[in-house]
Amino acid sequence: MNLDRSCQLVGWVLFIICSIFYLISGIHSQDSLVIWGSLLFLIACLVFMFPLMVYLISSFHSKKDSSNG
């Protein structure tokens, strides 16, 4: 995995962690606006992260197949 993809993955994971903390804070304070905003932010992060994960999985499988043959 190259440096660019690694940085992207770390960034998205940190965004997801932040959204979970905001969600927990919203639940704790019973603030529905924060809860919905955190859920939408979490979903958006997962949507943006999906193509990166597909690339990483396909890259992993292609390296695995090339090492077997």
Short description:
This protein is mainly α.
Keywords:
0% strand, 69 residues, elongated, mainly alpha
- The end-to-end span amounts to 21 Å
Please tally the β strands and state the result: 0
Binned, the helix content reads over 70%
Give average pLDDT, whole number.
90
- Tell me about the largest β-sheet: none
Strand residues, percent: under 5%
Number of helices: 2
Low-confidence stretches: none
* Order of SSEs: HH
What Rg do the Cα atoms give? 16 Å
What class would the helix/strand composition place it in? mainly alpha
Oligomer: single chain
Written account of the structure:
The chain is mostly helical. The protein has helices at residues 3-29, 32-68. α1 runs antiparallel to α2 (32-68). It is elongated and about 55 Å long.
SSE layout:
Blueprint: H1 3-29, H2 32-68
Helix pairs in contact: 1-2
